[in-house]
Every structure is written in C-alpha cells, then in structure tokens.
Amino acid sequence: MSEKPYNGDTIFGQFQPPPGSKPEGKVIGELIRDARNLSADDLDKISDYQRENNLRFGEAAIALGLADTDDVLQALAQQFKYAYADDERKKNSPELVMLNQPFGHQAEAFRATRSQVLMRTQADDSGPRRPLAVVSVDSGDGKTYFCANLAVALAQLGGKVLLIDADMRGARMHQVFDVNNSAGLSSVLSGRGGKGIVKAVPGVPNLYIIPVGAQPPNPLELLEGPAFGMLLREVTIKFDHVIIDTPAAVFGSDGTVVASRCGAALVVSRKDANKVSKLQALVESLQAGNARLAGVVMNEF
After folding, report:
1. Exposure of 1 by Cβ count < 10 A (0-12 exposed, 13-18 middle, 19+ buried)?
2. Which of 71, 151, 247, 293 lies 20 to 30 angstroms, CA to CA, from 122?
3. What pTM did the predictor assign?
4. 25 — phi, psi (to 5°)?
5. CA distance 277 to 132
C-alpha cells in the first residue's frame, strides 16, 4: 500500500459516503458556517460563486478563502457520520490513515482489502463470522498498521468491530489508538479478571479494542490455554467482526497458534523485505494448523 497524499483539488469528486449512509442533521453549508463562524453575507457569497462556477458548496468556500480543505472534509465526515481525525488524533496516531486521510489513495486500498476480506471470511449458515488472525513473517512488516486500519475500515461499515492485540512480545496497538494499557488480554488469560479490558475507541463509532496489557513471560502458553478459546467464543457472539494482531513468526509460533484457534488468517508481507521461502513456510504452517487462508497482502508502505 504505497503512500500517496490525497489531492485536495479533486477530493470532492472522489468522495463516496459509506454504503447505505445518508446525510443526517445539518447540511454541509451549515456545518462549515458553524466551524468558521461565517456570516449570512459570507454564505450568500459562497452560494453565488457556487452557482456562477458550477461548483460544490465546499469547493466554492475554499475558492473564496472562507474555508479550507480540512473544514470541508470535517463537514462531510460529520454529515455522513464518517470518522475523520481531528488535529490532535492526527498528531497522536499518524499511522491511522483511515482516519487521517479517509479519502486518500491508501484509504481506498484498505477499502478494497476490506471488501476482499469480507468476501473471503463470509460466515456460512452454521454460525457467526470467524475471528481473523493477521500474521506476518518478520517485525516491521506493517502488521499492526494493517490491523489498525482494517479495523477502522470495518467499523465504518456500521457493524461492531473488536480489535484484539495478541502480540504479547512487542505490542503497539495501545499506542496506535492511544488507549490505556494497564489491563488487557494478558489479564484475562492469566486469570486476573477481564473487567474493563474492552475499550471503546474515542472518535471511531463501533470500534472497540482489547489491548495486550502487561507483557507476560509465557505468551505462548497463555494463547494455548483454555481461556483464550473461551474469550474467542464470547467475543465472536458479541461482535460482528473480530481482528487479532499477532507476533511476527520470527518470534515463535504464537501467530500460527492464534490463527488455528481463530480458523481464519491473513498474511501481511512487506515488499522487498520478506524472503519467499519464509513466506511459504508461514503459509504452510497456517494450513497445517487448519486455518483458512483469507489471502496475502503486500505492504508497500
């Protein structure tokens, strides 16, 4: 997923609201007015310029210097109830391109991947959708980055999404989403209770996260224990989508164990970084564990 900044001059033509979404509440002109404290005269100027030049309201406001691209994107996001990061979130969570640049090329790549994942993990009539374990060969492949943005993309469809950080060897998900990590997955798996470990992600409706919690000395044993299976069964019933971040294969078999218990896995590989032999070995280990392979994603970021 190569990084290409969005073009502010064409973004309004490219923007498509989430499937099935409808604008609610204030229209975009009112939202921009409130954000910029525009007067009635300002709104009349924008409307006149809009008609004269056959532009959208937001484009006209930008052309007249009465709003900027970010104002319009914020208004569009609010109008269609679409998560869009404010300046503080952009600063604290730079990896969340689905929030920071939701109309850019990288975000579109995640939406395309989301569609493929949904088709490949579609639940049959026998029960709910399987949790999806995301695995990779080595650290630095972009697995956490991928998990975080895929989870946001799924949440933007409207279903309840749970993101579990099962990387108990080098967890970063709590940093990506800036959530408290004092208690999490390791707390439940070690028998220290699970109260308060599921945390709603501020500013992203429908998205919840279970951070890793304290890093344990025996992560593989905890993942192979009965508590993890019980947790998966419970969250699969309560959430529409469950995404699980795992340690890279270079650190051990944690990822393949998680994938086996989930029943579905997706591999993230980094362009010009992973050896084909190691990638093949990872795929073979997943298949040996009876995990259904949803696909392999090549990360160019």
Report:
1. buried
2. 247
3. 0.78
4. 75, -135
5. 24
In a domain, 215, yes or no: yes
Parent domain of 216 = 95-299
CA-to-CA dists, residue 148 to 14, 36, 95, 211, angstroms: 24, 32, 8, 12
Does 5 map to a domain?
no
The b-or-e profile of 14-24 (16+ CB within 10 A means b, else e) is ebeeeeeeeee
Q: Which amino acid is at 152?
A: V
CATH code for the domain of 109: 3.40.50.300
Q: Is 17 domain-assigned?
A: no
User: Do residues 44 and 180 share a domain?
Assistant: no
65 and 102 in a single domain? The answer is no
Indicate whether 244 and 282 sit together in one domain: yes
The residue written with tokens 């969340």 in the block is: 96
**Pair (43, 165) in one structural domain:** no
Do 155 and 183 belong to one domain? yes
Tens digits of per-residue pLDDT, 59-103? Answer: 889 999 998 877 777 777 766 666 766 677 777 778 898 888 887
Residues 213, 189, single domain; the answer is yes
**Both structure tokens of 275:** 């050896």
Query: 193 — alpha (psi -120 to 50), left (phi > 0) or beta?
Result: left
Instruction: Give the neighbor-by-neighbor strand order of the sheet with 264-270.
Output: 199-200, 207-210, 161-165, 241-245, 132-136, 264-270, 292-299
Q: Is the dihedral of CA 30, 32, 34, 40 positive or negative?
A: negative
Counted domains in the chain: 2
- Residue 224: which of 166, 138, 158 has the closest Cα? 166
Please report whether residue 14 resides in a domain: no
The reply to whether 31 and 143 lie within a common domain is no
The rounded distance, in Å, linking the Cα atoms of 140 and 223 is 22
pLDDT in tens, 201-260: 988 889 999 999 999 999 999 999 999 999 999 999 999 999 999 999 999 999 999 999
